[in-house]
Amino acid sequence: MLTHIQIRDFAIIDAVELELGPGLTVLTGETGAGKSILVDALLLAAGGRAGAEVVRHGAERAEVSATFAIEKNAAAHAWLNEQSIEHEGECVLRRVISADGRSRAYVNGQTMSVQSLRQLGETLVDVHGQMEYQSLVRRSAQRELLDQSGEHRELLSAVSETWRTLSQVKEERDRAAASAQDREARLELLRYHTSELQALDLKAGEADELGAERTRLSQRGRLASGAREIIQLLREAEDVSAEQAISRALSTARHVGELDPTFAPMARLIDESLIALREGVEAVERYESDLEADPQRQEWVEDRLATMESIARKHRVEVSALLDLQAELQQEFQRLDSLEASMAQIEKRLEDAQKKFTAACDKLTAARKSAAKSLGTNISTLMQTLGMPGGKFQIDVRAAESAGANGADDIEFLVSANPGQPPRPLAKVASGGELSRISLAIQVAAVQTDALAGSLACLVFDEVDAGVGGGVAEIVGRQLRTLGERAQALCVTHLPQVASQAHAHVRVTKLTDGKTTRTALHPLTADERVEEIARMLGGINVTDKAREHAAEMLRPAPAKSAPKAAPVKAAAAGASKASAKAAAPAAKKKPARR
Questions:
Q1: Which terminal CB of the chain, N or C, has fewer other CB atoms within 10 Å?
Q2: Chain centroid to CA 339
Q3: SS3 string of 482-547?
Q4: What beta strand segments (E) does 41-145 contain?
Q5: Is the dihedral of CA 435, 436, 439, 441 positive or negative?
Q6: What residue spans carry the region label Disordered (predicted)?
Q7: What is the mean pLDDT of residues 569-586?
Q8: Where are the alpha helices (DSSP H) in 316-338?
Q9: What is the mean pLDDT of residues 469-484?
Q10: Cα-atom radius of gyration of the chain, to the nearest Å?
Q11: How many C-beta atoms surround the C-beta of residue 225 within 10 A?
């Protein structure tokens, strides 16, 4: 539900804001006052296209902000959650157009692309006018409206689930079929690769060990020289070796320890270092003795590593990954070797999945045809009362060329506005006035379903009463009021019969001082509504009889009570007292009935 709209420097609007409540709100005013500009501004906020021409002359930018309460709007909730935008039941759309035509869009303060804003806007605002239809001419929206009207949620869920399963099995079958095409050649290649790897008989960590051994064998001279130098320094030095020096130090430490017991721990440390030194020298001596030249071993190590590296290069992997590659090739070989049996199992699963999907689609098709007949009859009946006697509406449910997650049906709204004319697609109806009234009939019929009424966006009707008058105009007004009792509706109208049915009434006035022109909004009180309806009835000179007639039209009918709508409020930034007075002429007192 739209709760607030603020507009600055848009077309001839300098600064206006409007608070709205539930129910039917009408916008009235003289031709050219700017009523449809408000609709254009709302469309802009919801992601509509616009350029520099919308910026008020002399202004740097145009800005429109629209606030929506979305507690019951599941589609808007889902979109915001998908985008990770916090909302707490409220959504603020903001659009800024600069004088050079550049556009910026925001959702709850977060920068958004215009395309993304448009996706969200389609869940929040649905405009119906003589030339503008955001949803009902789209085949996908027609299908969704039919399914929502028929409350097909569970059937749709079953179709979607079985379609997902069927798609997964088809993908598995396609992969298996692709593998089967070159199965024999691939098996032969796998036999060769696996036998080569098995013959290599590679052990875990062997490559690293052989690499270290190759380094040791190739650097034997330097290694032996280093070991000999360590042994000489620590044990075979001509003067005093490290071992001899530490042995003497240990002997002295033991004598000192006998004189002073506190020196005993230090003597132990020297003793431990001597033991460690001797063990280290012995290890170096063993290492030196093991460094005997072995050309055959070195050649074998080089050949073994070269074989590993050659196989690894062939498969474009590291040597360390050869064991994992061997396991993968063996698994693929086993899978291909048993492919014929697997294909039979996959085909059986595919057949079962197709049967379940077809059964789910058949149930959904039957439910759609039943709902289409009921909804079509209801809409046709409403069309008779909206100035289209003999008009007929039908919903065509036919088999689609291909089935999918939404079922196996093509849904199309067909309409015949006049007797004798064959039904044609709703999108191709020539008359804008007829199309707008047909849309009204569709929406009124749709909200009779409780499940759908709570999910509707803010419905905006821009002069849907064009081309009608008299009793038909009153019926249009009643239908709009009925719609407003189930969902929020805004209506731009020139007809008093429609305006008198509203729950809230806003007058749009164009003000000028000879130099500049701007639009002002004024929510009307009960007395002011009488004056406005009288003006719509009587023209320039409002007579007492026109006021009496207006008051009669505004008397509440003893039918349904109006929804508890919050009072509509408006403010125009910078408006003077004189201009405010011009925007809201004082209502004259109704004369006594003679």
A1: C
A2: 40
A3: HHHCCCCEEEECCCHHHHCCCCEEEEEEEEECCCCEEEEEEECCHHHHHHHHHHHHHCCCCCHHHH
A4: 61-69, 90-98, 103-107, 110-112, 125-129
A5: negative
A6: 555-594
A7: 43
A8: 322-337
A9: 82
A10: 43
A11: 12
CA 207, CA 219: separation in Å to the nearest integer?
18
Token couple for 434:
């007829």
How would you class 73 by CB atoms within 10 Å of its CB: exposed for 0-12, middle for 13-18, buried for 19 or more?
buried
- Round to whole Å and give the CA distance between 217 and 205: 19
Please name which of 509, 492, 505 lies closest in space to residue 575, comparing C-alpha atoms. Answer: 509
Looking at residue 202, what DSSP letter applies? P
Task: Dig out the tokens for 160 from the structure.
Answer: 């979607």
For residues 120 and 76, the answer to whether their CB atoms sit within 8 Å is yes
**CA atoms of 374 and 169, how far apart (whole Å):** 37
The C-alpha angle with vertex 435 and arms to 431 and 439, in degrees rounded to 5, equals 175
What gap in Å lies between CA 415 and CA 421, rounded to an integer?
9
Number of neighbouring beta carbons within 10 Å of residue 101: 12
Q: What tens digit of pLDDT does each residue of 325-354 get?
A: 989 998 888 877 666 667 788 888 899 999
Q: What amino acid occupies position 340?
A: E
> How many angstroms separate the CA atoms of 40 and 129, rounded?
11
End-to-end CA distance of the chain: 45
Q: Is 57 helix (H, G, I), strand (E, B) or coil?
A: coil
Percent of the chain at pLDDT above 90? 25
Contact 462, 127 (CB under 8 A): yes
Tally of CB atoms within 10 A around 571: 15
How open is the CA angle 520-521-526, to the nearest 5 degrees? Answer: 140
Q: Would you say the C-alpha torsion 57, 59, 62, 67 has a positive or negative sign?
A: negative
Amino acid identity for residue 422 in this structure: P
Name the pairing type of β-strands 458-462 and 125-129: parallel
Q: Which residues contact 193 (CB under 8 A, 6 or more apart)?
A: 315, 329
**Interatomic CA distance for residues 584 and 522, integer angstroms:** 6
pLDDT of residue 528: 92
Q: Is the pTM of this model over 0.70?
A: no
Residue 411, C-beta contacts closer than 8 angstroms, at least 6 positions apart:
139, 142, 143, 146, 368, 372, 395, 396, 397
Helices (H) and strands (E) in the chain, counts: 20, 16
Cβ-in-10-Å burial (0-12, 13-18, 19+) of 349 comes to middle
How is residue 372 written in tokens? 């289409």
* C-alpha span between 165 and 160 (Å, rounded): 9
Position of tokens 């009204």? Answer: 440
Q: Looking at the predicted structure, is the pLDDT value of residue 165 above 70?
A: yes
Phi, psi (5° rounding) for residue 433? -65, -40
What type of residue is 278? R
Whether residue 374 contacts residue 402, with contact meaning beta carbons closer than 8 Å, is answered with no
Secondary structure (3-state) at 409: strand
Could you tell me whether strands 489-492 and 458-462 are parallel, antiparallel, or unpaired per DSSP bridges?
parallel
